[in-house]
Amino acid sequence: MVLLYERKVTSSTWKLTLNPSKLSNPDADLRYTIPEKIEKLSDNQLHDNGYDYDDEDNMIIFMSSSSMDTEQAFLIASKACQELGLEQEAIAIDENV
Predict the structure, then answer these.
(1) In sequence order, what are the residues at sequence separation of 6 or more whose Cβ sits closer than 8 angstroms to the Cβ of residue 55?
(2) N or C, fewer C-beta in 10 Å, the chain?
(3) pLDDT tens digits for 14-62?
């Protein structure tokens, strides 16, 4: 009898919502800057998964990972935003969107 082990890889998605009215420089081109910084800090465990705008013109950046837990992802995203000099109150991070 042969037993096969199958590892199911699930991917988690996080969204970063940026409120431009709370940024000191609301015209900053952050669409690529933030995901690139997060990918670098996470050793490419978090990946850019697109972006969108909500009804209030907030930019939403989606990040995904199949190997990182929520706490790690939040810490890395927060560190990336801090290193980029973004105001903490301008950013919201939510899991599993």
Answers:
(1) none
(2) N
(3) 898 999 888 888 777 888 999 999 999 999 999 999 999 999 989 999 9
CA distance 22 to 52: 18
Tokens 């996080």 sit on residue: 14
**Token output for 90:** 């301008």
Query: For the domain that residue 23 is a member of, what is the CATH number?
Result: 3.30.70.260
Q: Which residue, chain included where needed, has tokens 């990336």?
A: 80
Residue with tokens 């969108």: 52
Residue 88 lies in a domain: yes
Asked if residue 2 belongs to a domain, the reply is no
Q: Is position 6 within any domain? A: no
